[in-house]
Amino acid sequence: MRELKILAVVVFFSLLVYVLVEPFAHSQMHKHVEGHNFVYTGEADIVQASKEKKETKKKFWSDVKKIASIKGDVKAGEAVFANCVACHNGANVNMGGVIPPKLDHAGSIYDKNYLIALIKDPAMASNVDHKYEDTSTHPMGSVKFTVNSDKDIADVVAYMLVHKAGEATPKEAYEEACVRCHAMRYDKLTQLGETPGFKYEKDALAHKIKVLEEQEKVKTYMGKLPPDLSMIIRARSENFLETFIENPQSQLPGTSMPRVGLSKEGYEKVKAYLTAIGDPSKPERERLGPWVIGFFIIFSILAYLWKKEKWRGHY
């Protein structure tokens, strides 16, 4: 019985640390932020806004809600979308600090309200208007003058929700939403996309120079080079990742990282890619976990029975 008492004491204090001490320590180091399930209504932006900007944000998101209620014309939206492909064409040309993302799966990985807000005012939608005295100076600010009527916005978003809504793989979702700022060295992804194989070293060096030049441009625009995300899935909690991607200002007030507007489906795709690259052994661990626990339970029972048999008559 002595061993069982010792085991009970060890289990008790282990559970005490796991259930009470560890969560408290974690809560002090990483604050818990309530998310909004990737639904973009502007509520959080308005709450966090200064007095001077609160009314401006209220009006902006009220306009977004009004546009969202308009039934868009998909055919008319196709013509409006022609204004987008001049920049969003996958040519990897830096414009104003970053490379415009491809929109191949915009309708499936981004939220509808966010797409409307982004076209109406990119800086406000991305919640980085604090970086600009005039939000039209945002790299995408000119869109406000080329697609400026509520009907045009409703039409082009309707087009994307129908014709740019194919099933994206986790990697495609990451490439479209994140890679223009965040490299993924464990998968040979840079701000210019996937690193090709080179036959000659001089070609590899030339490509590396292009990557470094692109990183310098991103660094100038963002204030510092955004981190490589190869290990972010292990470095941060799920709550942090979800709320930070949904609204970076909720975790780092004043950050220059823009909201990217992922829908819940889009976020799950990106998270799946981050997990596949940063924690590839997770499925195997989860598969083996129950077997390992079962082994220890059976081994403990057998060890106890063996000890009881060997020490019979010695008490």
Distance between the termini: 11 Å
Beta-strand percentage range: under 5%
- Quickly count the helices: 16
Tell me the radius of gyration. 26 Å
Would you count the extended β strands for me?
A: 2
- String of helices and strands: HHHHHHHHHHEEHHHHHH
Secondary-structure content class: mainly alpha
Task: Tell me about the largest β-sheet.
Answer: 2 strands, antiparallel
Count of discrete domains: 2
Report on this structure.
- By secondary structure, this protein is mostly helical.
- The protein folds into two domains: 1-30; 35-280, no CATH class.
- Helix content is 59%, strand content 1%.
- It has 16 helices and two strands.
- The protein is elongated and about 95 Å long.
Overview features:
315 residues, mainly alpha, two-stranded antiparallel sheet
Task: Put the structure in a nutshell.
The protein contains 16 helices and 2 strands. It is an all-alpha fold and 315 residues long. The protein folds into 2 domains: 1-30; 35-280, no CATH class.
Q: What's the layout of helices and strands?
A:
Layout lengths: L1 H28 L13 H6 L2 H18 L5 H8 L24 H4 L2 H9 L1 H4 L17 H4 L3 H14 L6 H8 L11 E2 L2 E2 L6 H22 L9 H4 L2 H9 L1 H4 L12 H15 L3 H29 L5
Helix pairs in contact: 3-6, 4-9, 6-9, 10-15
